[in-house]
Amino acid sequence: MKRNVFIVIMVVMVLVAVVAFAQTGVKKKRPLPHEFGKVTINNFSEAAKVPAVEFDHWLHRAKFTCRVCHVDIGFGMKAGTTGIRADDNIKGFYCGTCHDGKRSIGGKKVFEACSKNFSRESFGRCQRCHSVGRNVKPEYDFAAFTEKFPKERFGNGIDWEKAEDSGIVKPIDHLEGVSIKRPPLKIQKDFELNPQIQGMPDIIFSHKKHTVWNGCELCHPEIFLGIKRGQTKYSMADIFQGKYCGVCHVNVAFPLLDCQRCHAKPVN
After folding, report:
1. Has this prediction a pTM greater than 0.90?
2. CATH number of the domain enclosing 79
3. Helical H runs in 128-219?
4. Contact 183, 163 (CB under 8 A)
């Protein structure tokens, strides 16, 4: 009986998702694993007669915490909101923070993104990022890179939490010359969130899991205004529209199709 109730509730949630996405007027296809989290950056590229930039989240999240890029470096959480120019990269901002041809990550020098001196010989380097519509072979192949990673059902098929727990990925949380020195964060206790639909399993929110990647300042106060449980009011429709939890769990973190990753407490 309980299982049947749970199945019905899951169907209702899927219908809510369909309605929420339908309100945008855009039909979305389910991305392939290597495409999940991919961002197209095109604020200025096509206007400057160059292809737009393709950014692979999966590769960068395997190397860095979200906080490094979205707090320390200053990338907006929504695609297209940062307004990155080549001049910014040349001056060492945004992508140029790491992609300056000087910084080494994990013992490997990071390639230079943009340069004041442009030549035909440097065109191949430009294509590494400005690759939309071009048949550009990436340096890292998704399937080969993630072959030994723990698997998951949705998103890009990787359980990033287990990958971090097991040490397969060790995301960097500090960039020399960019990040401030932070004292270790005190891990807050997990807590339950009670859904409004009767029979729906409670949500178990883990501060521990989120602290590893986000710290506190990525979520508070930009996404969740208060730090007191229940202070911020939101619905599943809000989340499916990319607000609150949906800021990450629509685009990059495991997607909302994986209901049981959040609604994890068994129904009594």
Report:
1. no
2. 3.90.10.10
3. 142-145, 160-165, 207-214
4. no
